[in-house]
Amino acid sequence: MSGVARRVVSLAVVATTAMTALAMSSGLAAADPCPDIEVVYARGTGSPPGVGWIGQAFIDSLRPKVGDRSVGVYAVNYPATMEFRESIGAGVRDARTRVEYMAANCPDTRLVLGGTSQGAGVITLITASMAPTRGFVTEPISPELGRHVAAVVVFGNPSRGRGLAGQPLPAISPEFGDRTIDMCAGGDPVCSNGADVFAHFSYVNNGMVEEAARYVAGKL
After folding, report:
1. Rounded Cα gap, residues 75 and 65, in angstroms
2. Mean of per-residue pLDDT scores for the chain
3. Axis-axis angle for helices 208-219, 52-62 (nearest 10)
4. pTM, 2 dp
5. Predicted pLDDT of residue 134
6. Looking at the annotation, which residues are catalytic?
């Protein structure tokens, strides 16, 4: 990651930590072991354990759009630190393990894979088959597991930004592209060549969370 991108993420850590402090418990798995729908969500860099504030806003927006179906939540268990290679690797392993578990134990549950910022990178690496650069290697879940995934949603995805894939996730994910939405706010320096740090935190207010929830609901 370039020095510019690292400074951007440093600012993101400070702001995200403050905004997610009230959502620390929001990403706990639902009590129902086999809900109709489960959102497997990876938070952004520096967010406390859980799904993060953008993840929670997405889940809150999705719930009323799926009728009386139950929606469980699994927060990807990973460090979400600025030690990106180790942190993302841990996230990839945990997210894959959760998909495998749900496919084996709750085969009728429809899965939604999602992530914000670094968490979006985690989700990219388990759904993309065209490898980004900088030493990050994709580890896509198998087509057999993939049939349990109804939709994929990412916000502020660094994999489409500076020096990585440079393309939205649907373009590098033949398996999931037709059920994937990759949201990048105008000017967001993490997922584009923009320079507006605040754009990285704009996804709730700019309507993209709502748009993504509508898209995902249409796939369920």
Report:
1. 21
2. 85
3. 50
4. 0.84
5. 59
6. 117, 188, 200
